[in-house]
Amino acid sequence: MIRDLVFVLLALLTVVPAFWVVFSRNIVHAGFALLFTLVGVAGFYGFLGADFLAVTQLMVYVGGVLVLVLFTVMMTHVPAVGRRRHGLDRLVPPAVFAAAVFGVLYKVITVVKWNVGEASTSPTTAEIGTQLMTNYVFPFEYVSIVLLAAMVGAAILIRERSHAGSDDAIAEEKQEARP
Amino acid sequence: MNVGLPHFLTVSAVLFALGLFAVMSRRNTVAILMGVELMLNAANLNFVAFSRYVQRGIDGQLMAAFVIVLAAAEAAVALAIVLALYRNYGTVHADTAQSLKR
Fold first, then answer.
1. What are the domain boundaries of chain B?
2. Which of A50, A59, A89, B64 is the most exposed place for a label (fewest CB within 10 A)?
3. Which of B17, B71, B88 is nearest residue A99 as measured by Cβ atoms?
4. Three-state SS string across chain B, please?
5. Residues 6+ apart with CB under 8 A from A157
């Protein structure tokens, strides 16, 4: 009974702000609604016994990705003047497609007889650590290299360029730097 | 109501459909990115739910951890691109980014 109540509360915490994320006109509001959705998903991880993932979700998504998103929203604020409103013809095809995808997913979920096993409730953090250092050591290293490459790429992408960023200006700069 | 696997999958499907709708309908690049994050979270929720209820191994949770790491990398690069777009075009609407070279 308590489980059902917690599940319903978590589902509301996740899904209602998700609607707000999608349908809000104000991008800042959408960002803050995304905060609640991510916290709700972290709650689901905890509910499912994935305590390590719940904390990771809070630290990486809420503490990292969401801060980045809000930071970008603040830095690229486009004034609302002259903004075109969404036409209905622009909204209908995505709505139909998304509803169709949801319909197919829901049909699959309800039709398939899932081979549900006995649920275990033991903490999994130690097991995850062991697996990362044994069976998953190569994916672990690959993903760390990908992360490093992405960070370097992001830093290069947003670096300030002299002379309004034209390639010719950079080439000239290199020429001048040469003795 | 006995909470089981289908309930988690349904919540995940709702999140995925909402993310898909955001990606297809929004014009603001940051809003599109938020839709992508919603879809990634839906996939992650599926991984963890299956890991708990069906397979009873730890692999699903490890996959979810990798997805979280890759989503962080994706967000960093995508937001860098958005900032570069804003610097070059003065707007973050996806429709305006139509040329490869400024």
1. 5-90
2. A89
3. B17
4. CCCCHHHHHHHHHHHHHHHHHHHHHCCEHHHHHHHHHHHHHHHHHHHHHHHHHHHCCCHHHHHHHHHHHHHHHHHHHHHHHHHHHHHHHCCCEHHHCCCCCC
5. B77, B80, B81, B83, B84
Instruction: Specify the number of domains making up chain A.
Output: 2
Tell me which residues of chain B, numbers 49 to 68, contact chain A at a CB-CB cutoff of 8 Å: 49, 51-56, 58-59, 61-62, 64-66, 68
On whether residue A97 sits in a domain, the answer given is: no
Q: To which residue do tokens 């390639």 refer? A: A167
Residue showing tokens 């890759």: B70
Report the half-sphere exposure of A123 (CA within 13 A, side-chain side).
Answer: 7
ipTM value for the complex:
0.90
Contact A116 B7 (CB under 8 A): no
Give a yes or no: residue A27 inside a domain: yes
Looking at chain A, the whole-number percentage of residues with pLDDT higher than 90 is 51
Question: What is the identity of the amino acid at A159?
Answer: R
Question: Do the chains contact at B65 and A114, CB–CB below 8 Å?
Answer: no
Question: Does residue A82 lie in a domain region?
Answer: no
Strand partners, B28: B93
A95 neighbors B25 (Cβ within 8 angstroms) = yes
Q: Which residues contact A2 (CB under 8 A, 6 or more apart)?
A: none
pLDDT, tens digit, for every residue of B5-33? 889 999 999 999 999 999 998 888 899 99
Span B5-90 CATH architecture: Orthogonal Bundle (1.10)
